Amino acid sequence: MTHNADIRTGGCLCGAVRFTTKGPVREVVACHCGQCRRQTGLYHAATSIPNDRLSVEGGEAIRWYRTSDHARRGFCSPCGSALFWSPDEGDFTSVLAGAFDEPSGLKLTAHIFCADKGDFYEITDSLPLYPGSRGGPPAASKP
Ligand SMILES: [Zn+2]
Ligand SMILES: [Zn+2]
């Protein structure tokens, strides 16, 4: 999959918020923690990009909700689409993979906080499964 100068676009369900990423983005990681489950209804699959390579149009439609003492989550206030996760420290933003226009050229590579995953589904792919963050080796990976 080739991208025009590695430029990707995306936005929320209603179209009030549109964004553009320039250059390479991180591989997609699925977070199965309780916060992500409640916010998305399932899990939170996101890439990440330095802030200086992310531009946002319609930012006034974004509501920021603080979910911890070190991060907040941005969603579109008219339509409720989850879009961003932004740490207070650090110069990057996580962007929800499902918000990108297709073909996204993105790829899911790992599952994190699997110990907190919802009890109503199973993770059935063969990607690495981390019980918490990606600080250590994965606990398991399906054959
Ligand atoms: Zn919207
Ligand atoms: Zn999470």
What does this molecule look like?
5% of the residues lie in helices and 39% in strands. The chain has a single domain, classed as Beta Complex (Metal Binding Protein, Guanine Nucleotide Exchange Factor, Chain A), CATH 2.170.150. With 143 residues, the chain is mostly beta strands. The chain has a 7-stranded mixed beta sheet. One zinc ion is lined by residues 31, 33, 35-36, 44, 113.
Question: Count of DSSP E strands?
Answer: 12
> What is the N-to-C order of secondary-structure elements (H for helix, E for strand)?
EEEHEEEEEEEEE
Beta-strand fraction estimate: 35-45%
CATH topology: Metal Binding Protein, Guanine Nucleotide Exchange Factor, Chain A
Number of spatially distinct domains:
1
CATH class: Mainly Beta
**CATH architecture title:** Beta Complex
Class computed from helices, strands and strand pairing:
mainly beta
Rg is 15 Å
What is the spatial order of strands in the main beta sheet? Answer: 6-7-8-9-4-3-10
Instruction: Classify the helix fraction into a percent range.
Output: under 10%
Q: Total helix count? A: 1
